[in-house]
Design a protein that fits this description.
Elements: E1 9-14, H1 28-46, H2 49-54, E2 55-66, E3 75-81, E4 90-98, E5 105-117, H3 128-131
Antiparallel strand pairs: 1-3, 2-5, 3-4, 4-5
Pfam family, one: 4HBT_2
Protein name: Acyl-CoA thioesterase
Length: about 140
């Protein structure tokens, strides 16, 4: 599967006064919160409801590349995708944030999420039927 063939999930955010830091643009911690919000919404929108009820996800790693920023009032579109099948309990999700011009991503987040059973809180391998809806 290539990056171009991975199914995309989109979500829009508007930078409010509460998102702006002392430099006048969206704070780094806000980008991370938005990435987590997109990941959760992606899971809830695409996954089988029975899987949402049975499994939880925890972050094991975030990697963020900043190439630009936005100021108060700007709208950004987040685009999430999963390019590779899971490895054991881990799934890697990629999220690009596009500014108002929609050109190149201004912030990119690569996160590794681990699946745990809701009933026992233990890590578990991601079953193929859980991964399937997220992959091309």
């Amino acid at each position: 599967m290539t990056a171009d063939s991975a199914p995309r999930f989109r979500m829009t955010f508007t930078a409010g006064a509460e998102h702006i830091d002392f430099m006048g643009h969206v704070n780094n911690a806000v980008w991370l919160q938005w990435a987590q919000d997109v990941a959760t919404a992606h899971w809830e929108a695409v996954a089988d409801p029975a899987h949402v009820d049975a499994f939880l996800w925890v972050v094991t790693r975030h990697e963020i590349d900043y190439r630009g920023n936005v100021t108060q009032g700007a709208e950004v579109t987040a685009e999430a995708r999963i390019e590779k099948p899971p490895v054991g309990a881990r799934f890697e999700r990629l999220i690009d944030f596009f500014g108002p011009d929609g050109g190149k991503p201004i912030v990119s987040v690569r996160s590794t999420w681990a699946m745990i059973g809701r009933d026992n809180g233990r890590l578990m391998r991601v079953p193929a039927d859980v991964a399937r809806p997220f992959l091309a």
